[in-house]
Amino acid sequence: MYVTRHHLFAAAIAAALTAASPVSAQEMKLASATINDGQHEWQKLFVEGVKARIGDKLKMGIYPASQLGAIPRMAEGVSLGTIESFITPTSFVTNLDPRFQIFVVPGLFKSPEHQYATIQDPAYRNHLETMFLDKGLRVIGAIYNSPTVILTKKPAPKLEDMKGMKVRTFASPLQMEPMKSIGAIPTPLALSEVIPQLQSGGLDGMLAGMPILTAFKYYDVAKNVTDLQFSYILSVALVNENWFKAQPKDVQDAIRAAGREAEQKAFPWVLDNNKKANEVWLANKGEILKLPAAEQEKMMKDFLAIGAKVVDSNPAVKKEFDVIKKVVDAKTPK
User: Fold this and answer.
1) How far is residue 290's CA from residue 156's CA, in Å, rounded to a whole number?
2) Of 262, 263, 273, the residue nearest 45 (C-alpha)
3) In sequence order, what DSSP letters do the residues of 166-196 get, joined into one string?
4) Nearest-angstrom CA–CA distance, 232 and 37
């Protein structure tokens, strides 16, 4: 590429702006799109755990509510190393590695406790930490987030009510394809863009977890939630592996230990927060609907078939799904 004086001037300005940023270059930046939810709680517990082990040897800063950019930019940042850590539902990083899809296969987990028992299986948890090292990512945290619900501007007590609706989804086939199957129009979108789109009519609804809907006061723009009960969201805290390997061993050990400790401490908090989120939603004149039993059963049958098709279409995804499915089956309540 031919470098002009203009290019050099622009690079100098960019460098000056970076140097003037309030984010220290030596700081471990912990990014997320959400606030006052399980992801944010894990971050706070993680920081406490690291400090308890190594004091102030590692500077850390928490940047919730998309302070470091929209979700695609934060995912890109942790992949490139411009952001040290990013916590997010797995469906938002399937573009980094399609194997992240395995955690939201419809019907995989029977309950939050079932998901927790699976992820916390010692051998599987060790496997999960290093599963994505070939993509330069290490999993330092994995927490239950919430059930998947659909928020709609108009009441949708039946699936036919959702036909033609433009629904914000995660950028994952296992959210997009199920929505297509019920006649909705999946629209992947960063969380920071959803409320304006709901207000303007660009969206009719969104797939999300209830704690997000209450934390960002979605009840001010839409009142109707239908609990589709087809998957339980798992959030993962990713760290850039090159940055991680550059840390002294005691820092690495503190990060790994604090991340796992924070998972265990966060789980009961997240369960309680989901319960409180439902209460807050109802207290603010929102409604929580469920599909008729026969319709729920038919929907799940269709969603299970979609999940199997998506998984089987990619050998790497299928291989990892088979690994987790063995643990899931072993942890399934009898």
Assistant:
1) 9
2) 262
3) EEEE-SSHHHHHHHHHTT-EEEE--GGGHHH
4) 15
Q: How far apart are the first and last CA of the chain?
A: 63
**175 phi, psi to nearest 5 deg:** -110, -40
Strands 166-169 and 185-188: parallel
What predicted TM-score, i.e. pTM, was given to this entire model?
0.90
φ and ψ at residue 73, rounded to 5 degrees: -70, -35
Q: What contacts 29, CB < 8 A, 6 or more positions away?
A: 23, 61, 63, 68, 83, 84, 85
What does the alpha-carbon distance between residue 93 and residue 113 come to, in Å, rounded to a whole number?
A: 24
Q: What is the mean pLDDT of residues 274-291?
A: 97
- Give the pLDDT confidence of 133-171 residue by residue, as tens digits: 999 999 999 999 999 999 999 999 999 999 999 999 988
CB atoms within 10 A of CB 17: 9
SS3 per residue for 1-36: CCCCHHHHHHHHHHHHHHHHCCCCCCCEEEECCCCC
Longest dimension (CA), the chain: 70
Q: Six-digit token pair at 24?
A: 């220290």
